[in-house]
């Protein structure tokens, strides 16, 4: 019998599998995707948010625990478990040497990458290189890996894991780590969570930035079998992305990063939120939800020539025009309202010293909603517009865990069932997001879950002997 069964093939699952194997357990990893699509959402990532008290290799300056915690507290609005969040923060300070041992390389942040050279360590080659390195290491360590292995349900005895069921096959193990993502690719579940507006399913206009294989099968199964839940099914890492992006696996390149440098209007040509509320790394993942709340789940980011060169350029060119009336006609928005919105914004701008790398003093006065930073009139042609849709990366509804990554049933921890990654991220992320923290959660809890699962399995093995 296998000691530790790991369900999933992304960062959290791989960290769990590697740690369990290093602890002396035999490990089988089941990845629902085919080999060429392995890695879950982790293949689309770029970096890991890291606590550090002084400059370290690719990280500049210092990013101490308390600042990291305050950043997380701010974006979540307090909807986070402080004990588990601080566990993640502290774990982020000492994981990179272990990652390097398994073939992960880091590089300094490139200029213009969300102003995160101080807070985030970037993977050389991105997330795809990271998961490939982990898979190579897993194979070298003798971890068994099966692709196209869609686990349909778990067999439990009360709160204890017994076996997994895959296409009619029963796979028993002494312990199990569930690290197979959320339900962002399950359109029916998204519909159920978001409901209808004016007879239309809100979620039908969502695009999925990540993997098509995260259907939430085991999350639904665990909740049906009494696992304690955490989080809101409508909360997610949801980014405003190019409306022309593919339905699945668009990844980072579909994001539109100029939101803070201009204005955003909905399809009635009205602004609906403060574009300059905070730095883009701390606010980019709220804009998808904001767009989801607009009519027909669409919005438009509008900039002028002054913004060009100050953000990561999109993959697809925007709609361009030499005048605002020409731009609005190309977009098909209500022309009079659009021109009124822009005029009101332009007149409200109080331009001081513009600096897109700090929270500058360029703001609006007497405008609702305000723009609190980086407010400059849209007055320099050519003008650009990018249509936006909600792009879901991962959902926050999950199973409740403790600091040993144990899944809870009726408030009590399971003795041999653990969870890591997106399926439990809602314990730390009740809402909101800040760049790189998803990988911090997956790495921290993946490593904990693997270690604890190996200990549980080996203890069970010893008792049986």
TrEMBL record:
<dbReference type="GO" id="GO:0016491">
    <property type="term" value="F:oxidoreductase activity"/>
</dbReference>
<feature type="domain" description="FAD-dependent oxidoreductase 2 FAD-binding">
    <location>
        <begin position="3"/>
        <end position="428"/>
    </location>
</feature>
<dbReference type="InterPro" id="IPR012831">
    <property type="entry name" value="CobZ"/>
</dbReference>
<dbReference type="Pfam" id="PF00890">
    <property type="entry name" value="FAD_binding_2"/>
</dbReference>
<protein>
    <submittedName>
        <fullName>Tricarballylate dehydrogenase</fullName>
    </submittedName>
</protein>
<dbReference type="InterPro" id="IPR027477">
    <property type="entry name" value="Succ_DH/fumarate_Rdtase_cat_sf"/>
</dbReference>
<keyword id="KW-0285">Flavoprotein</keyword>
<dbReference type="InterPro" id="IPR036188">
    <property type="entry name" value="FAD/NAD-bd_sf"/>
</dbReference>
<keyword id="KW-0560">Oxidoreductase</keyword>
<dbReference type="InterPro" id="IPR003953">
    <property type="entry name" value="FAD-dep_OxRdtase_2_FAD-bd"/>
</dbReference>
<dbReference type="InterPro" id="IPR050315">
    <property type="entry name" value="FAD-oxidoreductase_2"/>
</dbReference>
<keyword id="KW-0274">FAD</keyword>
């Amino acid at each position: 019998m296998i000691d530790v069964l790991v369900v999933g093939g992304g960062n959290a699952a791989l960290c769990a599998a590697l740690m369990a194997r290093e602890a002396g357990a035999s490990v089988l990893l089941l990845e629902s995707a085919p080999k060429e699509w392995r890695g879950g959402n982790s293949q689309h990532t770029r970096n890991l948010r890291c606590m550090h008290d002084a400059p370290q290799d690719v990280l500049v300056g210092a990013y101490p625990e308390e600042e990291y915690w305050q950043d997380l507290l701010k974006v979540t609005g307090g909807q986070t478990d402080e004990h588990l969040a601080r566990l993640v923060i502290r774990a982020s300070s000492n994981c990179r040497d272990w990652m390097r041992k398994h073939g992960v390389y880091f590089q300094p942040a490139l200029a213009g990458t969300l102003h995160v050279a101080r807070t985030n360590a970037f993977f050389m080659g991105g997330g795809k290189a990271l998961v490939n390195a982990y898979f190579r290491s897993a194979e070298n360590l003798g971890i068994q890996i099966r692709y196209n292995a869609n686990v349909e349900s778990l067999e439990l005895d009360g709160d204890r894991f017994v076996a997994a069921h895959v296409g009619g096959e029963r796979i028993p193990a002494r312990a199990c780590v569930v690290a197979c993502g959320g339900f962002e690719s399950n359109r029916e579940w998204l519909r159920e969570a978001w409901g209808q507006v004016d007879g239309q399913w809100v979620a039908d206009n969502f695009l999925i930035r990540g993997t098509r294989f995260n259907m939430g099968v085991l999350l639904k199964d665990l909740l049906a079998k009494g696992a304690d839940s955490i989080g809101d099914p409508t909360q997610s890492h949801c980014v405003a992305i190019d409306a022309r992006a593919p339905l699945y696996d668009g990844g980072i390149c579909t994001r539109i990063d100029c939101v803070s440098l201009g204005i955003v209007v909905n399809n009635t040509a009205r602004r609906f939120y403060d574009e300059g509320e905070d730095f883009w790394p701390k606010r980019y993942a709220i804009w998808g939800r904001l767009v989801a709340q607009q009519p027909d789940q669409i919005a438009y980011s509008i900039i002028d020539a002054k913004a060009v060169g100050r953000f990561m350029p999109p993959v697809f060119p925007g709609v361009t025009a030499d005048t605002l009336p020409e731009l609005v006609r190309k977009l098909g928005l209500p022309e009079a309202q659009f021109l009124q919105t822009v005029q009101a914004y332009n007149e409200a701008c109080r331009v001081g010293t513009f600096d897109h790398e700090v929270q500058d003093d360029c703001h609006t006065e007497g405008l609702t909603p305000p723009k609190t930073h980086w407010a400059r009139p849209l007055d320099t042609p050519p003008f650009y517009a990018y249509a936006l849709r909600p792009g879901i990366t991962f959902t926050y509804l999950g199973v409740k865990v403790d600091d040993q990554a144990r899944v809870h049933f009726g408030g009590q921890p399971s003795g041999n069932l653990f969870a890591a990654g997106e399926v439990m991220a809602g314990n730390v992320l009740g809402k909101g997001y800040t760049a790189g923290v998803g990988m911090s959660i997956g790495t921290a809890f993946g490593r904990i879950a693997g270690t604890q699962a190996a200990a549980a399995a080996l203890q069970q093995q010893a008792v049986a002997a």
